[in-house]
Structure of Highly reducing polyketide synthase sdnO like protein:
Amino acid sequence: MDPQQRLLLETSYEAIENAGLRIEDFGGSDTSVFVGSFVKDYEQVSLRDAHYQPRYAATGTGNAILANRISYFYDLQGPSMTIDTGCSGSLVAIHQACETLRHGESSIAFAAGAGVILTPNTMMPMTALNFLSPDGRSFSFDARANGYGRGEGVGFVVLKRLADALRDKDPIRAVIRGTGICQDGRTPGIVFPSTKAQVSNITSVYQKAGLCFDQTAYVECHGTGTRAGDFVELSAVAATLAANRSQDSPVIVGSVKPNIGHLEGAAGVAGLIKSVLVLEKGEIPPQANFMTGNPRVDFQQCRLKVPTDLCQWPLPGLRRVSINCFGFGGTNAHAILDEAEFHVKRHRPLNIGRLAALAETEKIMVEEYSWTPLPQLFTFTSPDQHGVVRIMHQYADHIWDTLEFKTTEDLNNLSYTLNCRRSQFDWKGYVVANTQEELAETLDSTDVDKVVRSKTRPHPKIAFLFGGQGAQFPGMGSGLFYRFEVFRSSLEAATQYLLKHLGSQFNLMTEILKIQHESVIHKPSISQPATTAIQMGIVDLMKACNVHPSSAVGHSSGEIAAAYACGMISREDAWTIAFYRGACAEQMSIRLPGPRCQGLMCAVSMSEDGMRGYLSREGVSDTIQVACINSPKSVTISGDASGIRLIAADLKERDTYHRILDVPVAYHSYHMKYVDSEYKACLQDLPMDFCPGIAPMFSSVTGRRMELGVQSSRYWTDNLTSPVLFSDAMKMMLQESRPDVLLELGPQSTLRTFVTDILDDMFAGRRINLAPKYVSAMARGKNEAYTVLSALGALWSQGCNVDMQGLVKK
């Protein structure tokens, strides 16, 4: 394969990446490709042996394939052609690309140029026509000009209509205001350029663009470094762009050829790339190899200036440059470029964030927290494992080198670019960091063991898991509230619904955000709706990131959020069920007679049969019951507080792991019978029709897949009073749904041990990689935004098609 094809493929990816586009979005698109090139060195080399021709010589050396190979590789279905107009080829390609965009034939256009020297054969005819400098260097505009020095290179640019680029929030490097091409016609010789034709072309391009010459401060000339060519071109520039200038404000002219050589077919795109850099920096570099001006050109009289030192942009206001090229057969090309910043500021409105819509007190809370660096997710991907680590280390080096110039906004932008504007490959790695320093340190310490391989799947199977009561703690969810707008909106909606429609005597959001010594979050009337609201907020956040459940299981009250996640109940019904569940549970101290009014729950590392036998032997099975079968190795008992404490003391003596839950109510015990009728009455207005939802829910009331009744008040009463068959529900879900990932959503990772026990039991003796991966969205004692981002990073690295746009910090 011609090295030009390989280099074009390589630079095409680099250009796509620089444009913030992803190769996976191009397949089947109308993207067009135009490549300027005229050397065929590799074809000459491959044809030397008449008796042996490589099988793929035709496609490996054909000039048409320079463009067509790119279209083939990315599955692009717009116009695709290689253009040979000599040394103006790549600027002509840019013109054709612009025309394709203007006429609506393509939404995106690639324009490129390529020139590689592989044999001296091409140089011989050029030398015969005195094209090449005996010195091997270009002396553009200089008295020493005696031909050009050849160079090698490939240039590649990605073009879009300005309106489309603004709409898509693309990183715009410059704006092409106009392009044009023409032909010299008959001149004294076919290779002799024409001042008249170039004047006509420059004038036409400016007229069609509706622009005058006076704002153009710099012209990137073809600058071949031949006396005749430089004279003709500078005469054309003087007659047009410099015609109305004063001698105090000349047009600055330059050429990149003395720096990198004449790239011939790629010369135009090389000049354009240099011009973009000039516009961005606002500085014009000195002209290389320039000492004394061409004696045929009176630079002062022509109001032209060749810079010999670095020049600051000479004109106020908008920066504008022109690029001029001509081919050895007489094809001329011209383009006008404006700086991007001017157009971006004109067209992109200020981004007014969600804070403007918050109530005043809520706005203050967020603003007071805004000074704290917030965690960001950074994803890295490569076709090979070590490539991910190389990229991470390169970013670390760059961050350390530029640390003093970086801001928090730069960190946000880097996260957005890596997550949303990079192509996805099979090998993946990610980190979460709050600051530039933390990011650089983490990247530096990353090795290949932390890089995993997975193919992105459009519909991965993710089971959502939800814990029940007892997971609440002061300030839970506050890290998510300040970091994620989707979560904040969900919590605000829950708060307003409880206040306006359910007559809540407390502000849910205020109670959740209270610090420890002010919090009453452990009261059932608050903890129940608060925990459910937190779980539902994380569900909303996950769905905003394109993470949807393939199935769900809830432990006890966690079924409320599970039913919501599966689309079986509305969010208003979910808030209602949780609110009245907590309110009724808090009435236990009133409803239960005498010393039995206090209840407790205790998790114990013991099998169901073992615990039932223990309670029977102790003679307490009438007041202490097995409330939850969590796993083959764990149960939760519930009942009178005095009895629970005695059992806990005995278990301690036996050195059996146990933990008294942070709930003042004996859920799923006979205590609940005293409020079940009241709870059912509170929920009598729930819709009775069965809604299949978007994903199956596996009930911890029945231990089976939910078929009917999740909308009924009877079901939710059973959910409060009946034993929790979480282990059965999990096993049924694993058998029927076969998820790839188990994602726990809640204030803590309360189900981790139970899930591990269940997986060990089900997959014992089988390959460990058959078991789904467990991921927890939150963990007490850790920054919640950090853990949620880590969970999303883990899902992404496992092949889940996470929509990172949902993570963009507003």
